[in-house]
Design goal:
Elements: E1 4-11, E2 20-26, E3 31-35, H1 41-46, H2 56-71, E4 75-80
Parallel strand pairs: 3-4
Antiparallel strand pairs: 1-2, 2-3
Length: about 90
């Protein structure tokens, strides 16, 4: 079994103040990415910002970062806490 290496909280501004992503890495460099409101999978795939935004420019940069991290071959899973593709 591969041991876990690190837990990181990354600021992803734009949608709301204080929004963060969580990145959990293992000793092999593989990681799981979990990110918050306003940044669903469809958002970063299509680069569409949410209707509610404190800073559209910052939100776009955050989406670009999420997209880059999610498409990285070391990303085992990229998961939004919610998005339009999820049904309640």
């Amino acid at each position: 079994m591969v041991g876990w290496y690190g837990l990181y909280f990354i600021n992803i501004p734009g949608h709301t103040a204080g929004l963060i992503a969580t990145k959990i890495t293992n000793s092999d460099g593989k990681y799981f990415l979990y990110y918050g409101d306003g940044y669903g999978e469809k958002s970063w795939k299509d680069m569409v910002t949410s209707g509610i935004s404190m800073d559209k420019s910052a939100q776009k940069k955050s989406l670009e970062w999420i997209r880059e991290e999610s498409l990285d071959p070391n990303c085992v899973r990229s998961l939004a806490c919610h998005g339009i593709e999820k049904k309640p």
